[in-house]
Amino acid sequence: MRFNKENSKNPMSRSKLKLFTILFLMATVMFFACSDPVKPDNPEDPIEVTNEVTSIALNTTSLSLEVGQSQTLTATVLPANATDKSVTWTSNNTSIASVTNGVVTANAQGTATITAKAGNQTTTCKVTVTVSQSVIAVTSISLDKTTLTLAKGQTFTLTASVKPDNATNKTVTWTTSNYSGVDVDNNGKVTAKNPGEATITAKAGDKTATCTVTVPTIWLNEYELELIVGEEQTLTATTTPAGQSVTWSSSNTGKVTVEGSYGQAKVVAKTSGTVNINATFGGQTVSCIVTVFDCFSQDYVTIDGVKWATRNVDKPGTFAAKASDAGMLYQWNRKIGWSLTDPVINSNGGTQWDGSNATGSSWEAANDPSPTGWRVPTYDEAVSLMSNWTSTGRYAVVYGNKCKLFGSDENTLVVPLCGYRGWYGYTSIQGSGEWGGFWTSLPYLADQAYAASLIINSSVGPYMRWNGINVRCVRK
Questions:
Q1: Using one digit for the tens of pLDDT, what is the confidence trace for 304-359?
Q2: Dihedral Cα 250, 252, 254, 257, nearest 10 deg
Q3: What is the distance between the alpha carbons of residues 244 and 237, in angstroms, rounded to a whole number?
Q4: Which fold does the domain 140-215 belong to in CATH?
């Protein structure tokens, strides 16, 4: 149909045109409605992202359980935003230890490895299973002392008895109610520190036992003494308040005597045995245990394999009456003895000191004043005895004479510090109670020979041959 001006002016023609246009549009809509739609891309649609597990760790890498016990393992999986954080649990030996959701159960004695896995990551825990022992409880505890008196400075070790003997844990703990007065260590050793009283408690399991300890207001400087027959020692007592009168006594005056008042007393050993020396003040008594040894009932004592005579040589061929007696003095390699009292007199009755030197390259047997079966010691024997002084030597007053002591107990060698004659021309006695010594058989120079010097630093050194010194001989 042609469109022209004439048609546009025709009302009928305009109606037809409108109808045609409407029909065309309707057909177009229906066409697209019946065809498959094409969906455009939507930028707002979500994109699926997966976060992998990077590590897994357990709260412990080892467990110790008894059969029948259980414990829970906790796993930590990283990163926190991992897509799948689920954990799988396995055991390499379920007969020993099994696991469910991290709960480990001990089934039998042995070891097993528990593995936790998340994603591709794993970690392990070693489980050790033991068989439980039956617990046997402590039923009682007792002490060997329930009361105890200790003087200040004294110690005593308490012994605890825990029952039954097969108790699982028999460990004993010790405590004191008064640390400043009485202390106790982990082994039950009690130490008296200051006057007063304390309760010592021993505990095993839930059971306890006690001992009441009293520390008197008097104490001694020594609580044990070892003396030889004839030896003297001084005991000192201290009181609170200070300077109070003290009563001294001996449990056996036939063995040990004691004389004194207030704070000091002289103790003298008479015969061998053990005696208590008691000091009493204010109704309280403390004691010193004195043990006496008899080293004089034998002819010799053995020190470092050498048999030393227990007494000095007196007149040629004889010994002094007691170990503390000086005997006589001798010049080197001469058999004439000189007195230790003035005026001087020798074993032959002479009164004129001989200041000349004896000759000889050793102490000759014919000039040896030792009794039969004995001889003057060698240099090495004297050195060996002097070295023994550092470990066992001490000074003591024995039968009223100051002496130097070597060895111990019944094997004590007593050498008196009785002095000498002839030092630099002095023929009178010198150094009595301060110096002592005895000759060796070894000469030094033409006018000297070696002797043992019993002074503070005991040694063996050269002395002029004309000096008068003791002879302490040894068994041949």
A1: 999 999 999 999 999 999 888 899 999 999 999 999 888 889 999 999 888 888 88
A2: -10
A3: 10
A4: Immunoglobulin-like (2.60.40)
C-alpha to C-alpha distances, 156 to 160, 162, 254, nearest whole angstrom: 13, 19, 29
Question: What residue segments make up the domains of the chain, in order of their start?
Answer: 55-130, 140-215, 219-293, 300-475
Q: How far apart are CA 115 and CA 133, in angstroms?
A: 29
Start-to-end CA distance of the chain, whole Å, equals 171
Measured CA to CA, the distance from residue 471 to residue 326 in angstroms comes to 10
The structure tokens listed for 217 are 């207001």
DSSP letters, 126-186, are: EEEEEPPPPP----EEEES-SEEE--TT-EEE--EEEESTT-S----EEEES-TTTEEE-T
Question: Hey, what are 278's tokens?
Answer: 């008691």
pTM above 0.85, yes or no: no
In the CATH hierarchy, which top-level class contains the domain 55-130? mainly beta
Token pair of 4, please?
């022209």
Confirm whether 55-130 and 140-215 share one CATH topology. yes
Q: Give me the half-sphere count of Cα atoms (radius 13 Å) on the Cβ side of residue 405.
A: 24
**Beta carbons within 8 Å of 316's beta carbon, 6+ residues apart:** 335, 336, 337, 347, 369
Tell me the backbone φ, ψ of residue 34, rounded to 5 degrees.
-90, -15
Q: Which fold has domain 219-293?
A: Immunoglobulin-like (2.60.40)
Strand ranges inside 221-263, DSSP E: 224-228, 231-239, 247-250, 256-261
Dihedral (C-alpha) 213, 218, 224, 226: value to the nearest 10 degrees? -170
33, pLDDT greater than 60? no
| Token pair listed for 31 | 């066409």
pLDDT for 108 beyond 80: yes
H/E element, 122:
strand 121-130
